[in-house]
């Protein structure tokens, strides 16, 4: 089963995601009058900030619930699959925060982003990079293996290295100005279980509810020595890949 998004659950468990978006927004540097596509806009918190800079923003997201939340903020948001963007030379920039790692076919995504941009337009984004949530993933894999489930077959995430993503950007027709991979340990306000409820649907929704609850508790036990060593503050081992590229 695929990831199901709830704007309310997201706001409760993961408000830090857009809050961490300030640096990538600064890298985008939106200007008044620009047309900007927010790819994977979620509930539109960052789309709203781009619009506040004077740009015209369209947000797209695969989740109807997130798109509805973005529209409630006044964002022109639409439901769309990032693998099948159908814009043609319509934007000065495409922006994406914490969404590209959910798109398992990056080459198709990049074809659509490149086509959406005007010549010389920029693609600015941040996503999970190589090693992202490695300890969480290891705990998920181990807990599911204990119950005979192969987590790799359910894994929805794509976390490339800087070298891999640079190659993909260049192959899609971009010149890369900057691309960096960096660790960003991230406190989890509602602990690992809140994080799993928000982000681990593809693993936990694949089994009956009682089993999912058991697995969720077991993942927390397995991850606690690494991610909750002090016993009172969960911290996820996030690794980000941030880039700015220009379309040729
Ligand atoms: C991330 O933002 O890096 C992320 C979020 C949910 C699942 C995996 C990674």
From TrEMBL:
CDD domains the record matches: AdoMet_MTases
InterPro entries named in the record: Methyltransf_11, SAM-dependent_MTases_sf
Any one Gene Ontology BP term: methylation
One annotated GO molecular function: S-adenosylmethionine-dependent methyltransferase activity
Start and end residues of each Methyltransferase type domain: 37-124
Keywords assigned: Methyltransferase, Transferase
PANTHER family referenced in this protein's UniProt entry, alphabetically: TRANS-ACONITATE 2-METHYLTRANSFERASE, TRANS-ACONITATE 2-METHYLTRANSFERASE-RELATED
Keyword Methyltransferase in annotation: yes
Protein's recorded name: Trans-aconitate methyltransferase
Organism: Candidatus Defluviicoccus seviourii
């Amino acid at each position: 089963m695929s990831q199901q998004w709830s704007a309310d659950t997201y706001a409760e468990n993961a408000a830090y995601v857009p809050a961490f978006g300030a640096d990538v927004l600064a890298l985008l540097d939106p200007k008044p009058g620009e047309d900007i596509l927010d790819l994977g806009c979620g509930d539109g918190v960052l789309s709203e900030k781009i619009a506040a800079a004077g740009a015209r923003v369209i947000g797209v997201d695969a989740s109807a619930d997130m798109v509805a939340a973005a529209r409630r903020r006044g964002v022109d948001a639409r439901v769309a699959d990032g693998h099948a963007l159908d814009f043609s030379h319509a934007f000065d920039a495409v922006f994406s925060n914490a969404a590209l790692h959910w798109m398992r076919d990056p080459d198709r995504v990049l074809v659509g982003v490149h086509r959406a941009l005007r010549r010389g337009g920029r693609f600015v984004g941040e996503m999970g990079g190589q090693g992202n949530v490695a300890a969480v993933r290891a705990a998920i894999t181990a807990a599911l293996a204990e119950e005979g489930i192969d987590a790799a077959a359910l894994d929805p995430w794509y976390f490339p290295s800087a070298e891999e993503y640079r190659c993909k950007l260049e192959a899609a027709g971009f010149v890369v100005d900057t691309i960096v991979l960096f660790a960003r340990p991230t406190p989890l306000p509602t602990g690992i279980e809140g994080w799993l409820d928000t982000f681990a649907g593809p693993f936990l929704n694949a089994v009956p509810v009682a089993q999912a609850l058991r697995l969720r508790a077991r993942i927390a036990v397995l991850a606690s020595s690494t991610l909750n060593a002090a016993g009172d503050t969960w911290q996820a081992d996030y690794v980000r890949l941030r880039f700015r590229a220009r379309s040729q």
